[in-house]
Amino acid sequence: MDGKLVLLLVLFAGQYTGLPLRAQVPDILPQYLQQLREAPPGKRKQVMGKVQEFQDQRAVSALVELLESGKDASDARNALTRLGPQAVEPLLTKATEANASVRVWALSALTLLFSRHEENGLQRQDPRFIEVVLRCAAELAPANQEGVVHCLGIIGPEPSGRVEDAVIAALRSPNFRVSMAVDHLFWNMQSPRLKTALVTMLRDPDAEMRRRAVWALGIFGTDAEKNPEIPDLLIAALKDPASRGSAAYHIGEIKDRRAVEPLCAVLFEREGQRDVIQALVRLRDDRAAHPLLRLVLDTTQDEEVRKEAAEALNRFDLAGIAEPLITAWPTTDAVTREMLLPVMRALTDPRAVAIIRKEYPNDQEDQVILDVGTIIKQCLMIGGEGTGKLFYNEKALGILLTLQMESEPEDIISDIETAHHVTQPYLVKALRHKKAAYRAVAAACLNNGDPANIGPL
User: Fold this and answer.
1) CA neighbor of 122 nearest in space, from 95, 152, 94, 154
2) Residues 336 and 344: beta-carbon distance below 8 Å
3) 143 to 88, 174, 294: CA distances (angstroms)
4) Can you list the pairs that 65-71 forms with residues at least 24 positions away whose Cβ atoms lie under 8 Å?
5) Which sign, positive or negative, has the C-alpha torsion 316, 318, 323, 327?
6) How far apart are CA 21 and CA 12, in angstroms?
7) CA 367, 371, 372: angle at the middle one, nearest 5?
8) Could you please report the per-residue DSSP string of 355-387?
9) Please, are residues 416 and 445 in contact by the beta-carbon 8 Å criterion?
10) Which of 191, 194, 224 lies closest to 212 in space, CA to CA?
11) How far apart are CA 292 and CA 317, in angstroms?
């Protein structure tokens, strides 16, 4: 008969015996513990599920021993975490044993228990927990340190500073997974001691250590109120080839426009080049347009990087680069022209329009229409904050976006005419937008998309 059924029958009958409840219930846990011992490795999960329901110290002891079984360790860890605080002491003991694999599984279970410390009635800075974690940090090989980092993150900064020192030591780990775990930890664990240590690492002779320090400081920099000095450190780190990519990425996230000129100064350096381009795109400062154009025109640079720079140009006001682009156009090769063709078509300068009409006479009319859609698509790619501003109205944006999805000009014209009463007020306002590309799209749409009426964009 199933053990649970026996238990229910005895409880039902017990109301007639007058005996204490514990005396009425047969001890069926040994039956399950016997099944646990006899079941072949890898086939014990179901029995573990029954054992954990008893919330009994004997169950804890049996499950802790299974941490030594490679095939059952994961299930044993999960069952132990459901037994709550009573599993903590045996797990702390297991985490100090000689077997590295057992220590890792014990730390994993402790991580799950202490991550829900309030629910489990535990203190995340329990002195026993801290000592065991720091001992593991000192003794375990780098390959086994990832769980240590998770525990350090749960404990957080404490008065002695030993936890923060262990975090910095883990950041220096040769195990990339460990250093990545530390990166994630910094989103929730920041302190003056950690920041000072990271700033010191900026002068480390090891290039990889400097890169890691810059990346971590960039995370600190997302809280500008608490860490106002971080942007200056990131801008200075642009001069270090090893750290440039990480610094540029976080500068783009922080959006400090003081970095525009320093970014442009390293734009032609190969290290971190794409991160620099993307940082300039995120800063959206028109001072970057001319250096980006120079990068596209420089045929000694990597072709894929030049393509990315050309695509980035459409995020800026193109009026400032009309003159140098038109001047350089006759001497550019076919590859460069293909990169810059969307930019050239977006210019409102009559000379650019004349060049396009002369060099691309066969597809000029349809291409003007299609380029309007391309401009919209590129503008929408700026990001979340750009999408709500382009034409001041999301409904109008949705209608105008059909330009990039339709291939027949008459279909585009029909869509615009149908919704003209909705879009017109916003398009009129968009005619005064500071971006030439936005003004061009608005002008085209106000002319009802008729190629004959669009005129020079």
Assistant:
1) 154
2) no
3) 24, 9, 46
4) 66/36, 67/94, 67/102, 67/105, 67/106, 67/109, 68/99, 68/101, 68/102, 69/41, 70/41, 70/101, 71/41, 71/42
5) positive
6) 11
7) 125
8) HHHHH--SSHHHHHHHHHHHHHHHHHTT-HHHH
9) yes
10) 194
11) 12
Quote the CA–CA distance of 99 and 257 in Å, as a whole number: 53
CA 310 to chain centre: 25
Alpha carbon separation from 349 to 321, 337, 427, 438 (Å, rounded): 11, 17, 21, 15
Tokens 């120079």 belong to which residue?
294
Average pLDDT taken over every residue of the chain: 79
* CA gap 186, 309 in Å, rounded: 32
Question: Average pLDDT of 209-225?
Answer: 92
Closest CA to 207 of 250, 237, 164: 237
Prediction pTM value: 0.69
User: From the CA atom positions of the chain, what is the Rg in Å?
Assistant: 33
Q: Which helix H or strand E contains 94, and what residues bound it?
A: helix 88-94
Task: Kindly state the tokens that stand for 11.
Answer: 């409880």
DSSP string, 5-40: HHHHHHHHHHTTT---HHHHS---HHHHHHHHHHSP
DSSP 195-217: HHHHHHHTT-SSHHHHHHHHHHH
Q: What is the mean pLDDT of residues 292-300?
A: 96
The stretch 147-164 carries a mean pLDDT of: 93
Amino acid occupying residue 161: G
Cα distances (Å, whole numbers) of residue 442 to 318, 366, 416, 430, 453: 16, 17, 11, 6, 13
**What secondary structure does DSSP assign to 295-326, as a single string?**
HHH-TTS-HHHHHHHHHHHTTS-GGGGHHHHH
Residue 361 confidence class, pLDDT cut points 50, 70, 90: confident
Distance of alpha carbon 16 from alpha carbon 327, whole angstroms: 103
- CA 445: distance to chain centroid? 37
Which tens digits make up the pLDDT trace of 188-204?
Answer: 888 999 999 999 999 99
The answer to whether the CB of 75 falls within 8 A of the CB of 48 is: yes
CA pair distance 48, 321, nearest whole angstrom: 70
Of 422, 388, 407, the residue nearest 445 (C-alpha): 422
